[in-house]
Design a protein that fits this description.
alpha/beta, 2 domains, 13 helices, seven-stranded mixed beta sheet, five-stranded mixed beta sheet, about 325 residues, D-Maltodextrin-Binding Protein, domain 2
């Protein structure tokens, strides 16, 4: 099923904006508020190469921690900002897809101007559909997210092997699939078998902070969280830095990729691109990055996918090797 919405956003439940922002996927729309109006007295540009309808596509499965209706309302509000700030007569539509296959079909039919998808999904479809990868997130020193395994300093856990028969908290797989991939590769490399066999218990935390606090209060022996999420939590609660330690750290992994339709005009894409770049220097952007647990947005480069691609190749290689030994 495909759900689409146009103007007239509904009322939003308290706190829903922050919950949705933490998914990281709507950032491309949030930033569009920076698009500037045409200065008074400036020459009027022809808008013949601008779309009359701006359509943005998202995967419904990404929004696991928020009511779908609230997700649509928030996305509508930000699409409305895009339509208003572009300063030409354009309507907008938010389209939420139940599956990647439905989104791919819409892209092939030219029914979307913009899509935002998890990096793993992007790698799966990049060679089969026409998309221009435009932006990725950055952690301040490089692109993407880094993940860490945390434990208590007094837990007696000093290595990955020490986690055998311990309880593990993981972030949502639909939102943080790279974290699950990283754990799978570590288990394969160490010859530890399936995670449900190696750990005594594995649970998914609805929020990153819940996983961190579960370890802090000894409700879980270990957890995988984002490095940025841990840093923010430690700033808010300095005791976390005193009591918790990082057992392992992942390479920088792609978070999401915001892609544009190559059939839109270059001028239209350039207008959006410049707004996104300006965000890195704005105070509102810095506040927004705090919510997104990222340090900014940078233009896409193919090498930014190398960390994630490397993990995928390593998983496939080790899986084949494991099967051949049986």
């Amino acid at each position: 099923m495909i759900m689409s919405t146009a103007r007239n956003p509904q009322s939003l439940k308290p706190g829903a904006v922050i919950q949705l922002a933490c998914s990281g996927i709507v950032i491309c729309l949030l930033l569009a508020v920076l698009l500037r109006a045409t200065p008074a007295g400036a020459a009027v540009e022809s808008n013949a190469d601008m779309p009359k309808l701006f359509r943005a596509g998202f995967l419904q499965s990404v929004f696991t921690n928020i009511d779908p209706k609230d997700a649509r309302v928030v996305l509508e509000l930000y699409c409305q900002n895009i339509a208003d700030e572009l300063q030409f007569n354009v309507d907008y539509k938010v389209v939420m897809f139940d599956s990647l296959e439905l989104m791919v079909d819409a892209v092939r039919q030219g029914a979307l101007e913009l899509v935002s998808i998890p990096s793993i999904e992007y790698l799966n479809i990049r060679k089969t559909i026409p998309l221009i990868p435009a932006f990725v997130g950055t952690n301040g020193t490089s692109q993407g997210k880094d993940y860490v395994i945390i434990t208590r300093k007094d837990s007696g856990i000093h290595s990955f092997s020490d986690l055998r028969d311990k309880s593990m908290m993981l972030p949502s797989v639909t939102t943080y699939e790279p974290a699950h991939l990283w754990l799978e590769v570590m288990l394969l490399k160490a010859g530890k078998g399936a995670r449900d066999v190696f750990f005594s218990q594995v649970k998914e935390a609805p929020k990153m902070t819940k996983a961190i606090m579960a370890v802090f209060f000894r409700q879980a022996d270990a957890a995988i969280v984002t490095g940025a999420g841990l840093e923010i939590s430690q700033q808010l609660n300095p005791q976390l830095a005193v009591q918790l330690t990082v057992l392992a750290e992942s390479p920088n992994l792609g978070d999401f990729v915001t892609c544009m339709n190559p059939n839109t005009s270059e001028r239209f894409r350039d207008k959006l691109s410049k707004a996104l770049v300006r965000l890195n220097e704005s105070k509102s952007g810095q506040q927004l990055y705090l919510i997104f647990q990222t340090k900014g947005i940078i233009p896409f480069k193919p090498e930014y996918m190398e960390g994630l691609e490397g993990l995928l190749h390593e998983r496939d290689r080790l899986t084949v090797k494991t099967i051949s030994k049986k």
